[in-house]
């Protein structure tokens, strides 16, 4: 009762009466003075008159544990089509089969890693945390290899794109041009290869 009442007073009446122009340091000093004054006030309880300070000393609170309480933050995310999830201002890879799927991210406070699991709870990825807000992308090498394999398998068949080449028109193209223009088919094909060779190493107009 006493502690709860003091907390209620500090959060309500004391805070409402605080002037607007008070700095953070001044507000902390006033709150400390208020709390100290509350500790010394006489209280009437079932066992007679006492103070909050006496009640606190009688509670014999145990010291804080040496390690942080194991709090785990768990949040859902939707992976992108590139098999990435956003977490604290950075992006982390997931297996490509989870692209565009819902996943669950687990981060134990104080740990240097995060776990990414399916909605059913199967952990499929673990990454070392980058500093929040850097905007970096962290990819597992296995995820990259699997994503490349899928991309290559879905690529169209045939040879890859070739570089630009100067290919002279073939016989069929020349006959089509003759039919369209009504002119005689040229018997001489002028090759520009000699001009190209001569101009290849020149970097001026003279």
* Alpha-beta content class: alpha+beta
The N- and C-terminal alpha carbons lie at a distance of 98 Å
Mean pLDDT: 81
- How many β-strands, per DSSP? 9
Q: Could you say which overall geometry the principal axes of the C-alpha atoms support?
A: elongated
- The low-pLDDT segments are none
Q: Main β-sheet, in a few words?
A: 4 strands, antiparallel
The percent of residues in helical segments reads: 25-40%
Order of helices and strands: HHEEHEEEEEEEHHH
Spatial extent as radius of gyration: 38 Å
Strand order of the largest sheet: 3-6-7-8
SS strand fraction: 15-25%
Count of separate DSSP helical elements: 6
Map the helices and strands.
Layout: H1 2-16, H2 24-40, E1 42-45, E2 48-51, H3 52-59, E3 72-78, E4 84-87, E5 90-93, E6 102-108, E7 113-118, E8 123-128, E9 137-138, H4 141-153, H5 171-181, H6 193-200
Explain how this protein is built.
With 206 residues, the protein is of the alpha+beta class. Among the domains are: 2-59, no CATH class; 72-153, no CATH class. The protein contains six helices and nine strands. The strands form three sheets. A four-stranded antiparallel β-sheet has the order 3-6-7-8, with no helix packed on it. It has a three-stranded mixed β-sheet with strand order 4-5-9, with no helix packed on it. Strands 1-2 form a two-stranded antiparallel ribbon. Strand 7 and strand 8 (123-128) form a beta hairpin. The chain is elongated, with a radius of gyration of 38 Å.
């Amino acid at each position: 009762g006493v502690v709860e009442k003091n907390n209620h007073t500090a959060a309500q009446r004391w805070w409402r009466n605080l002037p607007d122009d008070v700095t953070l340091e001044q507000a902390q000093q006033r709150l400390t003075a208020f709390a100290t004054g509350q500790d010394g006030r006489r209280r009437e309880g079932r066992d007679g008159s006492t103070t909050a300070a006496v009640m606190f000393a009688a509670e014999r609170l145990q010291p804080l544990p040496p390690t942080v309480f194991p709090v785990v933050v768990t949040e859902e995310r939707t992976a992108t089509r590139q098999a990435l999830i956003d977490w604290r201002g950075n992006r982390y890879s997931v297996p490509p089969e989870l692209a565009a799927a819902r996943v669950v991210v687990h981060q134990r406070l104080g740990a240097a890693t995060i776990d990414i699991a399916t909605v059913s709870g199967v952990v499929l990825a673990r990454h070392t945390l980058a500093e929040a807000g850097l905007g970096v992308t962290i990819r597992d090498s296995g995820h990259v290899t699997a994503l490349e394999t899928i991309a290559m398998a879905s690529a169209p068949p045939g040879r890859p794109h070739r570089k630009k080449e100067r290919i002279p028109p073939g016989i069929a193209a020349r006959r089509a041009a003759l039919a369209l223009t009504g002119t005689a088919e040229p018997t001489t094909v002028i090759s520009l290869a000699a001009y190209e060779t001569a101009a290849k190493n020149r970097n001026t107009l003279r």
